[in-house]
Amino acid sequence: MAWHTKTPAPSTGPESSGLWLTCPQCSRVLRDQDLATTLRVCSSCGHHLPLGAAARLRTLLDDGRWIEHDAGLASTDPLTFADRAPYRTRLQKGSALTGLRDAVITATGAIDGLTIEAVAMEFGFIGGSLGVVGGEKITRAVDRSLAQRRPLVVVCASSGARVMEGTLSLVQMAKVSGALGRLDRARVPYLTVLTDPTTGAVAASLAMLADITVAEPGARIGFAPPQVIAQGGARLPRGFQRSEYLLEHGMVDMVVDRRELAPTLARLLRFLGATPPDAGASDPPSSSDRAAADSPLDLPLA
Ligand SMILES: [Zn+2]
Hints:
Helix 4 runs parallel beside helix 5. The protein folds into two domains: 1-50, no CATH class; 52-271, Alpha-Beta Complex (2-enoyl-CoA Hydratase, Chain A, domain 1), CATH 3.90.226. The chain has helices at residues 32-35, 53-60, 87-98, 132-148, 166-185, 200-203, 226-230, 243-248, 261-271; strands at 20-22, 29-31, 67-69, 104-111, 114-121, 152-158, 190-199, 212-215, 221-222, 254-255. It contains nine helices and ten strands. Strands 3, 4, 5, 6, 7, 8, 9 and 10 form an eight-stranded mixed beta sheet that branches. Strands 1-2 form a two-stranded antiparallel ribbon. Helix content is 29%, strand content 17%. It binds zinc ion. Zinc ion is lined by residues 23, 25-26, 28, 42, 44-45, 47.
């Protein structure tokens, strides 16, 4: 099975028959099979289609291999929350759709021989929202990065805070930001890649705290939805909250085509001082490996 078929498209993605996709930007009909070679970028107009977290790691990490950490962590529904559907049902649906137990994958891998700690967000799991589990997994990734002095690369794809966890989800902004502050003081490189969409609490915390902030073309990046801002009477400029607009106004450092992302990140990591590990220091990671530290549910909330 090709990698791109393993990760179902998010519900907000383009129309798909399973074999064919219609590009939402230029309406060209694209073969799903061909999108594997273009990393799900439209070959006609360059529109970047959604990419799941696992597929993302396969496109970025050497040989598509990594060691995953904390894959067993899952929310306990601390507020026993329900709106149109119980939160537990949403968790089960997210898991069935993505094969994950939460919206964040954390991993150790390498980009062009440079060992990194990586985080990828899965929009297909409750909109990539950041809850207690996601915050804990990212904080642990930061701690590993700090302990090993390995660069941290986070690929964001999120609607924001996990509202079903209320204040507990909002606390994750401070928790992750505090950890990233420790990483910054230790001068360990931190890169973010902002993909469509990067909004809400994630945009307001970890997404914008990197040494270098990279964005994919056309990605929506911002805190509040444009329609909410417009309710206050503001006239929004053309391209508002898109990557190119943010680049023009100094909020991101680079806009990079997904097909050039891995070599670009490698150059940036070297620019920030990353070097390959000593030869023979450790075996290369395997995608079948699981970190022995996978732990049961025992999460501090902040
Ligand atoms: Zn297109």
